[in-house]
Amino acid sequence: MPARSYCAMTNRPARILVTGFSVFPGAPVNPTEALAGILRDDPPQGEGIEAFRAEVLAVEYETIAGRLSAIGREFMPDIAIHFGLARECAGFRLERVARNSHAHARPDQSGAMPVAAQVCAGPETLPSTLPLDRIADGLRKAGLPVEWSDDAGGYLCNTVFTLSAAHACDGLRPLMTGFIHVPPLKEAEPDNATAMGIDDLVAGARIAIGACAAAWAESGQEESPAEPGFL
Q1: Of the residues 82, 167, 181, 223, which is catalytic?
Q2: What domains are there in the chain, each with its CATH number?
Q3: Catalytic one of 95, 167, 169, 212
């Protein structure tokens, strides 16, 4: 698509990015990979959405920043909603804080570890800018379980959350961004009492997307001034 300037505009529908992850050690099935594929094939639509994109990210420290930069330069999202698997959670876990640290990192899909102590230059913590209360209300009204967290973990989930919130990737500067963890997939783990069926997973993701689009429209967001490389 043609490059779009980051000039000031208000009352424009949002460009929304959703990401999920591929498989990783200990998770031969990643529900967020299936989620991204379903949303890509049947994208959410509505008055508050100008464009939508869903992507699956590889669980690799070395490539993640470059992948996010490429997506950002091509799509220039206003809103980025990142999803990941947390085996221990029992619902949609809304992450409130990204931690700019690799202190509790573990090997990625390729067996590699991060080379730096920090995820990127910037503050030690960064808050989610998604309308979390609104998302939680929507999920509860739909009968879907909700959890809250102030620790997105020490793996690639927290890495992506931090990179997105810190605007550390060239091109990826969403004005709304955050992370949502989800449980294992019921279809893959039928005996897991806290696993979630794919229909509920997709329904909940659509609720989160809709809540973000509505909040964007109501706030009359303005984009940041144009920067070099964004014209």
Answers
A1: 181
A2: 14-219 (3.40.630.20)
A3: 95
Instruction: For the chain, give the mean pLDDT.
Output: 90
Is 89 noted as a catalytic residue in this protein? no
User: Which token pair is 219?
Assistant: 């706030």
169 is a catalytic site residue: no
Catalytic residue among 89, 157, 169, 212: 157
Per-residue pLDDT tens over the stretch 41-62: 999 998 899 999 999 999 999 9
Q: Is 48 exposed, middle or buried (0-12, 13-18, 19+ CB in 10 A)?
A: buried
Structure token digits, residue 69: 């930069």
Given its phi and psi angles, is residue 76 left (phi above 0), alpha (psi -120 to 50 degrees) or beta? Answer: left
Active site residue 82: no
Burial of 225 (0-12, 13-18, 19+ CB in 10 A): exposed
The stretches of the chain forming alpha helices (DSSP H) are: 31-41, 61-75, 132-141, 156-165, 198-219
